[in-house]
Amino acid sequence: MVKRKNACLHNSSSKNHRNGIKKAPTKKYVNQTGMDPKFLRNQRFAKKKNVPSAKMAARLAKKSE
Q: Is the pTM of this model over 0.70?
């Protein structure tokens, strides 16, 4: 009996579409290696200084209740 080749394309398209061809999941945060160091430093300070005010904190606390 003759062995069948492993690289056979017969019916593979149907098999692939049976469960749907899905896109790769997108990442939540972009990798920052290789980004402009000046920009990253500024971003770090901006995150640190961007603290919500007392009014905003009270509103958020009220909303979560």
A: no
Q: Name the pLDDT band for 5 (thresholds 50, 70, 90).
A: low
Q: Identify the residue whose tokens are 């402009």.
A: 36
Among residues 62, 32, 27, 59, the alpha carbon closest in space to that of 47 is found at 32
Express each pLDDT in 8-61 by its tens digit: 778 888 999 999 999 999 999 889 999 999 999 999 999 888 877 788 888 888
Q: Is 43 within 8 Å of 35 (Cβ atoms)?
A: no
- Paired tokens of 58: 């009270």
C-alpha to C-alpha distance for 63 and 57, rounded to whole angstroms: 10
Query: Using CA atoms, how far apart are residues 39 and 22, in angstroms rounded to an integer?
Result: 34
Q: Looking at beta carbons, which pairs linking 16-21 to residues 24 or more positions away fall under 8 Å?
A: none
